[in-house]
Amino acid sequence: MMLRPYALAAAMLLVATSAWAQPGHPPPQPAASPEPPKAEDSSSEMRRKAGDIVTQPARDVGLSKTEIPPVLVEAVQDPYRLTGLKTCRQLSAAVTELNAALGPDYGAGLTVKENRGAKLAEAGGATVVNSLIPFRQLVREISGAAPAKRSLDAAVDAGLARRGFLRGVHNRQGCRTPF
Questions:
Q1: Domain ranges of the chain
Q2: The pTM is what?
Q3: 30-45 as b/e: b if 16+ CB within 10 A
Q4: What does 75-134 look like in DSSP terms, one character per residue?
Q5: Distances from the Cα of 117 to the Cαs of 54, 112, 127, in angstroms?
Q6: For the chain, which end, N or C, has fewer CB atoms within 10 Å of the first or last residue's CB respectively?
């Protein structure tokens, strides 16, 4: 009867994380700011990733959903649309809006420093949490978590393509407005 400890542990974890899945308690997300986003320091990144790992079972069974930002939904519909983007200021505002949803772009002062200990802890935590749900991938497909993740990934890809396109148009027009 090895299934019982797994089932009990999964149930306990789901109960513990279900508070975040309630409408009044969304999962922790980085706060949006009006200024361009900066690279996260290692401690805030570790806290964000720990929150993501702990809430993963709730997302796997469909108790918690990740919303796709509207700017990325628009990017999926037509990433190369220029309607309403004639001036440098409009192009800059559109890129800034994408930066808020996607995080900083390359060349925007983004530095990548990898903390090996943190990466090992993240991998270990994710492995333990993800092993709590037997037949996890099947559960994700049935609950709709896997298709939702594919939609989110497609929206991020479209947002990245749109941001690069708009930065190219901005550059081609000789604009000097900041992002």
A1: 3-19+42-172
A2: 0.60
A3: eeeeeebbeeeeeeee
A4: HHH-TT--TT--SHHHHHHHHHHHHHHH-PPTTSS------HHHHHHHHHHHHHHHTTST
A5: 18, 15, 15
A6: N
